[in-house]
Amino acid sequence: MNIGASGFILIIVVTLLLFGPSKLPQLGRAIGTTLSEFKAGARALTQDEDAGRRSAEKSGEGGAKSS
């Protein structure tokens, strides 16, 4: 599902109408902070899972692969 140029412009216009130009920097910061926290959490989960998998393989419990 690709958003074309006209769809992108429509989203910007609706956002400006809903929040106004003075609120957009605050909204952008909030979205950026939320995305960075989500990425950090997802990265931590994958690192924990990889570490658990490695420790299970070292102890001999990881004979079967799981998906």
TrEMBL record:
Q: Does the keyword Transport apply?
A: yes
Q: How does it sit in the membrane?
A: Single-pass membrane protein
Query: What residue range is the signal peptide?
Result: none
List, as start-end ranges, the regions of compositional bias called Basic and acidic residues.
50-60
Stretches for region Disordered: 46-67
For this UniProt record, the keywords arranged alphabetically read as follows:
Cell membrane, Membrane, Protein transport, Translocation, Transmembrane, Transmembrane helix, Transport
In its keyword annotation, does this UniProt entry include Membrane? yes
Instruction: Look up the coiled coil feature and give its residue ranges.
Output: none
Q: Where in the cell is it found?
A: Cell membrane
Q: Which domain of life is it from?
A: Bacteria
Q: Which NCBIfam families match?
A: PRK14861.1, tatAE
What is the protein's given name? Twin-arginine translocase TatA/TatE family subunit
Organism, as annotated: Paenibacillus filicis
